Every structure is written in structure tokens, then in C-alpha cells.
Amino acid sequence: MSPISPHGSPPDVGVLLPAAGKGERAGDGAPKQFRFIAGVPMLLRAIRPFASHPRVRQVVVALPAKDASAPPDWLAAVVGDRLRLVAGGATRAASVRRALDALDPACALVLVHDAARPFVSAAEIDAVIAAVEQGTGALVAVPVSDTLKRSEDGRHVLATPSRAGLYRALTPQGFPRAMLAAAYATGGDALDATDDAGLVEAAGGTIVLVPGRTTNIKVTTPDDFALAEALARP
Length: 234
Ligand code: CTP
Ligand code: MG
What we know:
Layout: E1 13-18, E2 36-37, E3 40-41, H1 42-51, E4 56-63, H2 65-69, H3 73-76, E5 83-87, H4 92-102, E6 109-112, H5 122-132, E7 137-143, E8 167-176, H6 177-185, H7 196-202, E9 207-211, H8 222-232
Parallel strand pairs: 1-4, 1-6, 4-5, 7-9
Antiparallel strand pairs: 2-3, 6-8, 7-8
Helix pairs in contact: 6-7
This protein binds cytidine-5'-triphosphate and magnesium ion (MG).
The site of cytidine-5'-triphosphate (CTP) has 22 residues, from helix 4.
């Protein structure tokens, strides 16, 4: 029998953390997921809120192949039944698929979270789980707040599209496991999808928006590391 969590529900949530990218836009140095933010590796910051969540049964991290077989000490120290490492693939979608294939079959709900988002909150995780329990896919999202401009050459403005009804897609994104597996079965690896909800939408699945925090940033560029240092300050 599965243990019952303090929330009263069994820990039946699986978490996939794609962390197999090269971090090319982040500039020189180690791949961004291994870099430290205020003394703590970014990947560890992304893992912790899930690993400590009472509903989470298992976390599967997709890493560059050489790191999956020889992880850094701080990661090797937390590997076990509840935290597995797998080799990722050439695209984010391929990495997510490999992590999904390795996930404990007892996980009926699946969350996918970018290793490059080190500031996810327990409230965001709770809200996505609650939405997925209604049988739909769900993602953390933030309304677009800037005015938008369209340009083809990056200099001349062609149009000012309305931002009404537009949202930025963050992670975590969550799905009933069968919904995510079906979307990946229809060729997820082939697409350079940056977003799992997009694959599920293309496969006909219903997705709902869960309000997120603008501080749940994705660390992409060197500037983002400066912002992350500031956000991590106690
Ligand atoms: N990712 C992955 N496997 C890949 C590519 C990306 O697991 N083949 C992961 C990244 O490690 C990251 C997340 O997907 O946690 C979001 O991708 P992104 O922010 O684009 O990271 P990178 O691809 O590493 O960065 P860049 O595009 O600048 O090279
Ligand atoms: Mg990328």
C-alpha cells in the first residue's frame, strides 16, 4: 500500500526536470544548470521544492549523458529511489520523453519543470496539481505586461499587436500521465517543442492556465544570473 501524505492523498505525482541543455545563451562557463546562484547550484534549487513536496513520489532529472553517469557530488548525494538521473536527448522534448520513460509507473500525474527555473514556489506546484486533478493539463502562466511590437528585421516596427489575452508560459506544467504520454507518442521528439503544453494542445488536450509569479524566472542570459542572484538574496 502506498504511504499517505500529510495532504491526505497518496504521493502519486511524478516530476520530470529537463536539465540536459547546453545553456548556449548563458555565455561561457559550465552549463547554466550546474552554475551556483548565491551558493546553491541552480539545478538543486529547481529540484528542492518538488523533492520536499508531500505529493511527489519521484523526480527524474534528464542530464547531459556524461553528467548522468558521473554527476557532481552535490547531486550524487541526493540520488535514490525518489530522485533518478537519466541521459537526456538532443532537444528538450527528447529529454522530457526519456525522463517520462524512466518514471515510476505508480505516478498518475506528471509535472514537467525546467531546471532553468530555480524560484518555483510550493503554491505554484500546489495549484498545478489541483488543476490536473480535475483531469486537464495545466501550466503556470503570467499575463503579458509589456506592450508588444512586431518586427521582421529587428529594427523597423511593423505593428503593435494587442497584448489582450496573451500570457507567458512558465513551468511547472502538469498533465494526467496518459495525456502527456499520448502527446509524446505522436512524435514529440521530432518537434523542437519548448513547451509540453503546446504538444498536448496539438494532440487535442485541454490546458488551463494557473496564475504564476513573475519571480519564477527562466535563467537564460548572463543578465538573468544577475537577477537570480538578487532574487536569491535572503
Ligand atoms: N533542455 C534539455 N535537453 C535539451 C535542451 C534543453 O533537457 N536537449 C533543458 C534545459 O537544460 C533547460 C530547459 O530544457 O532546463 C529549458 O531550455 P533552455 O532554457 O533553452 O536551456 P538550454 O537549451 O540549456 O539553453 P540554450 O537554449 O541557451 O542553449
Ligand atoms: Mg534551449
